Records
---
Amino acid sequence: MNATRDDFIPPHTLQQLRDFLYRSGSTWSPQEAIAGAVTEWIARQRAAGASIRGYQWKQLFLPEGTDVRMICDGKTHYAKVIGDKLIFRQRPTSPRGMTLAIAGDGRNAWRDLWLLLPDERYWINAARLRAQQNQQLDKLPASPADALTSAAKAMSQALHAAVVLIDHVDHQSTTVMERRLPKNRREYDLLEDIH
């Protein structure tokens, strides 16, 4: 593999990789990370038995191994995603259940819980992670059906504008013609027909 070429990777993906390597403090170059990722992916595909496990929290997926933290009254409380369950105090719970057990009612789990995803170095607030995920989803290209719907809507608007323009031109031309008819002309403006 030519280690200096990375133009086969979409620029946005390459930038995400560079940002991740910088944030995580990795000494790997993007090319080394790509080679390692491909090697690991091949090994995982060969193993092929295990499915991706984790906890689905509304629209946010927390992969297995994610640590969950909440600080309340100066105490830090931890939970962990094991398999497809969020385990807090050796019992499966939900993020809302965790906040209720720690602080009682009136707390917002999205705001109060912090997450440490596998292979990350820094904790991130759950609400912020959800917002980042939503931004990434908004950047995804529209599906072909969405593109066709948008095109049909634009064509419909253009057709409507053309019809309005034709009606306007028709009205203007009719008005000009009516002004030239004899009933609308003064007698001295009429020319005699000389044959």
---
Amino acid sequence: MPDVDYYKLLGVEKTASKEQIKKAYRKLAMKCHPDHCADDPKAEEKFKQISEAYAVLNDDEKRRQYDAFGSADFQQRYSQEDILRGFDMGDIFREFGFGGGGGGDMFGGPGGNVRFSFGGGGSPFSNRRPMAAKGDDLVYEIPLTLKEVAAGATKDVSFRVEQSSETLSVKIPKGMIPGKKLRLAGKGGPGMNGGPRGDLYIRTSLLKDPVFSADEYDLYVNKTVKLTDAILGARVSAPTIDGNELTLKIPAGAKHGTKLRIPGRGLPALENGSNPAKTGDMYVRLHVDIPKTLTAGQKKLIRNLQKEGL
């Protein structure tokens, strides 16, 4: 292939993740696969180009060398056979839901050393039936309160698929903090040529809470305490995410900003297969209240303490 920027060819940034590269390749492959573009004579060449780009950018070592040498130097160092070595189109087709394991005969042989074999005696796609392709995956974001993250929730999800709309009742498990995803198999975009539907991924965002803040599964709450309680120590109450309160001991001499840790009173972690779910911790941040105004008697007492060296 002439000197071509693989990143531009797939329409991704140089910082793109493997998942972004795979998604871009899949989208382009569905558009320009010769089975889907029988009337486009350039489809085969385009398909070869994007497959070569994907073979490089999806391989960590090849991508590292491509980034280091640049496009022209990389293609001088490596033949197309080198680039495609170990790139099994059969596996790729099965993974992307293009249907049966026909990748081997399309690209010159099954398994290990895969090479393209277009041209010459006609198109290798000409006698093939259009292949089934899995539909696009969809992503839907649901805003949750911290209490809903802690207890779980059931939410109605409405979305459009082509010309129709669908509504699903989705059970959100406990611990669905931002960054976690819930997969609903077969609820995504429609497939092509009889292929299966894609998947629907639910992710969450957090609504602001008037009392708590969160960092992953740990919860933080502010507690204002009197100056005398901070100096002498005291027992105070603090709210918990389940709506109850607990009593905690403030040590004598506590400073403004001191954090008191209460193990296991944070958010429950999302269960992960056989791994037991863990629960985060709760941290109570002390805000020592320094009074702005004092009575005459309070001032006298403070001055006496000052004389005592406090």
---
Amino acid sequence: MQQGLQTAEAKRARQRMYVKTSYYRQQNVMKALRQELHDLELKYSQSLQQLQYKQQQQQWSEAGGNEEDTYSVDLVERYMQLSTKKQELQRENQEMALLAAKHETFRLKVEHWGGSDGAPMLEPPPITVELSNMVFEPMTVSECHHIAIAAYREICAFLQSNSYLTTGAVLCGWRDRLREAADHVKFTLKKRFIGITPMELLARAWHVVSSPRGLAGLYSTDMRLSLKVLQIVDDHNVVMYRVIRNAQTQRAVQSVFLVSRFKVASGYMVLFRSVDRNRLRKLCQGGTVNLDDQGDCVGDNWLDMFTWTLFEDEPGNENAVVFSYGGIVYSTEAVNTHTWMLEILLLAMRWEAKVVRPPFMLGD
């Protein structure tokens, strides 16, 4: 049995290595073709300028004109061939990236199903939440899409608004943008990453945030955070349950939320959005949640969750990402907005360290 598991794991590792090698090979081919395409575009432009100038002056000969025209036609044909090849490689590149993402998703599912199998862990496991007396009503892919669409509209309205404040400070490349209210704060943190595409960064980020262990590892230990997967809807949508306890007051708040990734006009987005908590509570007895062996309860203390990460293309640079982390944080008895804002900045830097690399290793 153990030998079979090792063989299967070795096979999956070889598959991941093959996909990764093929992917980077395609990246190198794309880079070379982009350079060749740029050179041909330059030659083509110069050739057209020469032809226009000679036509205006009417000083070129019949033979010279035919020769120049033939040269230009050859450049046009070569340019079109390279453009077609570039499109084919771009499609293949996207397919390879999606295949790599599917391998990561499969690995996550194995982790969820396998549980504690004695495998080595890179991080300590998060505090577990016992939900044996509760049942979650499953969500459909269509319901996830509707939540994502509605949330994206709200996000666009906030991002397009000019009603915000900024400290003007830049910490390790991160820039802030805030809109404060009495009981909540809307925020965005933004940073530019080079040497990677939005799809590549999305795949790395999804590997971290779609599992309880990875997501919990982004928060500080002082947050006393507990996470559990309630449902893996599909490769792009996961439903989780979260509890945050105040270490001093022992008060806690809970959230049921969707983690969803999807394509948007400017790139890709990962959404963290609360869903109807009655899906979890209406089928349980007593309406309480057992957090640990002592039977502590959080009752009806619920916290709305609405955050997102946005991976946008940088204009004029196919190998760079403009990354945004934003959302709305609410003040509660467990965590106030000031604590949240400090935690958010630290969370962004932990995210960078896990998904990209530690900030002090980057040259912005």
